[in-house]
């Protein structure tokens, strides 16, 4: 589990990620994010929850397919839902990825 925090100016944000991987190349992930509002910039407080599933096509993890759902909420724009399909291709050694 990773938790990162950012404090800059008058805004604060953080996220936490949980990932569970299976030996078959599947990974299940859940990410939760929060960003505080900044009145001077006209930005409202915002929350996001993003569960996803990733399939790695080979053991080197150079080709992956991911399906992710996002739930965003802010008092400014209400609730929004989106689904993303992603393809990732990495080349070179792990030191350059």
* Overall helicity: under 10%
Mean pLDDT: 84
Number of strands: 6
Secondary structure tally, helices: 0
Describe the structure.
Helix content is 0%, strand content 65%. It has one domain. The mean pLDDT is 84. 0% of the residues are buried. The chain has strands at residues 2-8, 11-21, 26-35, 46-56, 63-74, 78-89. By secondary structure, it is mainly beta. β5 (63-74) and β6 (78-89) form a beta hairpin.
Question: In summary, what is this structure?
Answer:
With 97 residues, the protein is mostly beta strands.
Helix and strand layout, with pairings?
Blueprint: E1 2-8, E2 11-21, E3 26-35, E4 46-56, E5 63-74, E6 78-89
Please give a handful of descriptors for the protein shown.
97 residues, mainly beta, 6-stranded antiparallel beta sheet, 0% helix, 65% strand, elongated
